[in-house]
């Protein structure tokens, strides 16, 4: 059976769209043969691959199958609860980035995550963290502040993210609430190269370029761009930091470089599955769009801004656009 | 005879701790330091005495718990002043550490000091007796692990220049088999000294054995490039423990880094850690170098000799600096050139073993793709074929994006005589897309399944008149399956149906299945996503009016309801043949129709 041969092939592959294509083929093949175990393995790999290669919707789709199998008491294929709940954090983090998903649906999903963490006796700290990140993505400063307190004051356990990711998410929070000094302090070990992990400092430099800019440290801001851009250029899974770095270029009137960044990355941005990823980049590029020749991009930016604000029931993204 | 008593100017205990517990990864590294000192001394003497044959002699003497390791060389030796100088430089050894160039003359004493100190890893007392070529004098140095040492002149007229180091081995060195048995000592000496130009002789039970006489020739570039295939294959087995069948020689632009790239005879994970063996100035550095060759060198295991890279403090790896990056790039160029010059049979074998890695590399590296594309295997209507052979026979080559697309259209493609490659296998479609840019005389065309339907011939006007009303009615029933039914004429005649749909339609099917198969929280979210997506085009079920079954079906005078039972069965059959998992309503349709067929019997 072809899909079993494909399974052997994917083990040796890097996390690329090419790998995703084969994993999807395996899933279809395994399901057609009612091979639950292979279907589960392939989805498990797909969820991890999507984290590096982008495609959060495909990730969500695979996870939704996996979690229903986990819930199904008649399913006799073993699914590791700890691993599943670890991955649940990724799903919960990404769901607010889809403009198609309503606020009630996001709340419903986060609540489902909480219940499952409680049922399995894990700490709710990761839950509060993703809730904080969701509130940030939904532009709700007040709620983010409340949840941040809960996140910070709840005990860690094995499902807690690594210390570097935790640091990254906290400095992001400080940036979001405009406490730039706290963000700078939090980012210090990362900026100095003392702490890193698979996604850090890739995610850090964009936020910090804007943070240093806000603090008036032009030299450090530029350094963040110089170091950060090569890490995120044309990386489908790292569009938000790419957008932040572009925003920095536009804010510092480095128009030529900004245009180059737009041209190099626009294709992967437009293909991004998460509307918020697209919006962050498009808003950053917005002032440079040619109102006539790039009217479609202008329109797309404005439509997405309106859509997210409507979903979030606030004017956060419109304010971001106006603040330029 | 003069006698001095001094203390080291450094915290010796701390330094020994660093040397034995922190600096080095390998416990036997003091042997390398001894060999390095001896080699430096011989190289220095050769500058004034070029005909000298360098010799390093090692022995392990004494009974259990009272063993002594002796290492002796016929190098330039040290004068008493130099003995004092090397001890002084221990405290300031960084100068020498940063330059591991044995050919540069004057700084070898600095490294000598730190190297000798590493012997405290296994010994509490080191005795060195050295006779200098410069003044003919002999000096004895005794160093103790408590931090004291003494130096004295020994009056002797007949002693040949050179240095002897005696290590009184400490008891309880279970982690150091090389201190216990001479066989292990030989292995350690072979590890570090196999490429050294001086002869390394070990005494075993009173007999002398030279341990690097065969291996050292490989480190000389000119000799290496003249050696026979058998010798080089044998060397690979000796040093890497694998019987390789193919290899090529590589060197970088400066020619100061060169070596043997052995082709790994089995498939390896592309993201597996690379391990290459590297000698610096002929001294073994590591068998685990992972940055001296490009990341994509997964298919080769290399033995490299260099004199232009900078080792880290422990001299067990290299600093990742610009030089290392450019050496790795240049060796990458040499590797590609090596692949190019492999005999075709060896190249085919290499590609077959590592095809996935090569395809991944080729999909991102156009020059590499240009090099290997003729040999890449792809799947066509005729099974597996080499791209070069297909290109030689065709001006236009069609390829599909996915295995699914290929499966849908392969029958029509075969009957219409086009050349079709299944581009769904890993990296094939990106590779084929790139080939359009540089393969002259052949066009590569990505074909969507829908595009093949223009090969299907329409019904005649009479047929149209007869069957269109039935079709219209039937299609209104099929609407809920996002599929329409069409009647055509096509080859091959024994094929009753063809089911064609786009990638977008297939993705939507999968999303619908996900909605069906998950809990309410997730199905609700997935449904919202599904609703917002652009509607996917309908799938098409083409019925072949040239096929006996379809012809009889439509001329049987059956009612639309009866006909639709059969068409529905054909639809389900098409899905199953295409290995598409059925959606819930399709499963229901299948069951209902089976019952209706039973009733009709």
UniProtKB/TrEMBL annotation, chain A:
The lineage of its organism: Bacteria, Bacillati, Bacillota, Bacilli, Bacillales. InterPro entries: TPR-like_helical_dom_sf. It comes from the Bacteria. This is Tetratricopeptide repeat protein. SUPFAM superfamilies: TPR-like.
From TrEMBL, chain B:
ATP binds at residues 33, 37, 73, 163. InterPro entries: HATPase_C_sf, Hsp90_fam, Hsp90_N, Ribosomal_Su5_D2-typ_SF. This is HSP90 family protein. One of its GO terms (molecular function) is unfolded protein binding. Belongs to the heat shock protein 90 family. The keyword Glycoprotein does not apply. SUPFAM superfamilies: ATPase domain of HSP90 chaperone/DNA topoisomerase II/histidine kinase, Ribosomal protein S5 domain 2-like. Keywords: ATP-binding, Chaperone, Nucleotide-binding. It holds the Pfam family HATPase_c_3. The keyword Chaperone applies.
